[in-house]
Amino acid sequence: LYLNLKNGKTYRWQKVAVSFIRIANENIATCIIAKQNAFPYNRRDTFRIPVDCEGKVFWDEDEKPEVCVVKDVSHGGLGITLDETSRKLFKGLPAKVTWEETAHFDDNSSKSTRKFNVSGRIVRRQTTLENLIIVGIQMNEEPDAIRDYIQWAQVHRGLDRQDTKPSVPKGVQKQENWQLQKQLEKMAGNED
């Protein structure tokens, strides 16, 4: 059983029984009965690197590109967001995403700009409550530039982590897995 909680995370329970209980002859409650605790579920097999750069997405070679934000990239794909689109987006639709990033990619002090071009297919599409369109794209093939970028980002993220505080958007409560587990146990009544 997989559940998406209010915190946006997906949790998985193994070997569960699901029952429905009528409350006061009106409301129906769903009861999940499990002997094992839930654990976080990661639908990706690879580590994601945040990008947050403006880019362009081409749905078709002949069409005009649409502006997007490249949210993150991994060895298998990338996530983009769009404010709006003129295209009907569906799983399997081909997409080409391009963006540039300027940073200290080398050990010297001067900044340089890298250009990225990724081709793939849509594997996920979601619209948020704020009408932001989130699109997951699986790469056809991982370009060397993406592989190098991920390696560079992982090294620099590790080096910079000591000097930075993680940012948490307002209204979002950051919790560790053990805190979420305690909440789930409390909600379940901690019955065996």
Can you tell me about this structure?
The protein is an alpha+beta fold. Helix content is 15%, strand content 42%. It is built from 2 helices and 11 strands, in the order E-E-E-E-E-E-E-E-E-E-E-H-H. The chain has a 6-stranded antiparallel barrel. The chain has a 3-stranded antiparallel beta sheet with strand order 1-2-5, with no helix packed on it. The longest helix is centred in the last third of the chain and has 17 residues. The two termini are 18 Å apart.
Itemize the secondary structure elements and their pairings.
Blueprint: E1 2-4, E2 10-12, E3 16-23, E4 27-34, E5 39-40, E6 49-58, E7 66-73, E8 77-82, E9 94-103, E10 112-127, E11 133-139, H1 144-160, H2 177-188
Antiparallel strand pairs: 1-2, 2-5, 3-4, 6-7, 6-9, 7-8, 8-11, 9-10, 10-11
Shape: globular
In total, how many beta strands? Answer: 11
The strand line-up of the biggest sheet is: 6-7-8-11-10-9
Average pLDDT number: 78
Unreliable residue stretches: none
Structural class: alpha+beta
**Order of helix and strand elements from N to C terminus:** EEEEEEEEEEEHH
The fraction of residues assigned to DSSP E strands is 35-45%
Ends distance: 18 Å
Keywords:
192 residues, alpha+beta, six-stranded antiparallel β-barrel, three-stranded antiparallel β-sheet
What's this entry about, in short?
With 192 residues, the chain is of the alpha+beta class. It has helices at residues 144-160, 177-188, and strands at residues 2-4, 10-12, 16-23, 27-34, 39-40, 49-58, 66-73, 77-82, 94-103, 112-127, 133-139. The mean pLDDT is 78.
